[in-house]
## 1
Amino acid sequence: MRSEEHSLPFLTEGLPGTGGTLKEVPEDFLVEELPLYEPCGEGEHVYACIEKRGIDTREAVRRLSRALGVAEREVGYAGLKDARALTRQALSLPRVEPAQVLALEVPGLRVLSAVRHRNKLRLGHLRGNRFRVRVRQVAAGAAEMARQVLAVVEKRGVPNFFGQQRYGGQGNSHHIGRALLQGDHRLAVNLLIGDPSAVTDPAWRAALEAYRRGALAESLTLLPPFCRTEREVLRRLQARPDDWRGALRAVSPRLVDLYLSAWQSSLFDRVLAHRLVELDRLRPGDLAWKHVNGACFLVTDAAAEASRAASFEISPSGPLFGPRMAWPEGEPCAVEEVVLGEDGLSREALVATAAAPDGARRPLRVPLTEVHVAEDEDGLLLVFALPKGAYATAVLREVMKGPP
């Protein structure tokens, strides 16, 4: 996927980029969840705002549930945050006291506030996220360059690319998803185990080279502990050689869904690349996305809807392909059919594919808000907010003019 990501076009083509690097320092990347609503102060749940570093949301849930004696499944959260940033988000905890939560000392996180509320937090119960990003080793005049770029992006919208972080550590999750979708079990296993040239860890690379030679026992010995799924797949393959389908049963349903979702994401990115020049304009036949509620409607008169697009009330949408997805008409439909065809599928074949995810629509652009740019001796500081489901990397690649 890396070469595909590098080839994605820029909305602000022609404007200079700041260049720079993002360091693996949590304080250089702060993600703050923007709540959909505030806790009301009463009820059986406690909404705990936590700050965490070095652990993802699921690990934070595990640690808090153990500390409080609460079942993990009863802990609610609105969004998943990874381990590579300093992040702030809310978790809901049932049948505990706010003072009890505030007094916790849990490695990797601290509790910033604890307030009662009536219901459990559910996935999606957030407006979006605010990002504070430090870009180091930037070009001279980086702040002014960034302001010029972000002024265009604020006006026209952030290209809603998924980008490279959607495709896994080896950049091939979407290829695994395609192989699963097409029922090519051997290819799916080979892709899942991976390509030695795509990893830098010496033991991991040696394990993948051993697999390529057919030395499964040696590969199992060399695989790092974090390759849990790969190890289980290899164990099954060692027990029953050439049973590729049986080996894939070691992959959890959640991970299978992630692979299929990555495949959808890669095709969405390709459709968006086709439409990028007119990101903020609607065509006849488009399915327009209402930003207020995520509903879509068919555009029959693009000129009549132009003012609503200009005010960011509505935007063109793109496909997360699946048999139950709504299709546009006219030229927008033709673009989507071409992209799907380039991947070896048709609308009819997609409907007949049992493994295909349902499908949905996604806006081709999202609004950028709360923008702030500053520069000091440490580099460039960018602050901005995005709606839920949008990625900060889509903003950063426009500013830096390269994959962050």
## 2
Amino acid sequence: MEKLDDCLAQLKDLQRFSLDEYKDNRLAQGSTERYFQVAIECCADIASHLIAAYGLKRPADRKDVFKVLGEAGYLEKDFARTMVQMVQLRNGLVHLYWDIEPERMHGYLQSDLVFLEKFKAFVLAVVEVEDSSLG
């Protein structure tokens, strides 16, 4: 969670760039891409741990971790689909790095952090419920 928190903080800081400033700043572009990649990977790793902890069915591939949580009722189905799309974004950042459009990434930066924050809130709520059931 600390790594996810750090990535979210860095991404929030990068939101201050207007589209024109962002397009002219390759350091901001590269930072945005990397922090998104790592933040999404953190969410997918956490989702994998939850699947193992709850003994849920094994996902077919990385993006399916959110689908499994949705099918099991832990995530709303629409939100699970959104998180699958986030993994697809991560895959594009990793595997199609030469074809990343600054305008599109700037749009994700401005509008999609809310989904990563929502997943973080979900995980914190799960941990809180688990902690209260133990004590």
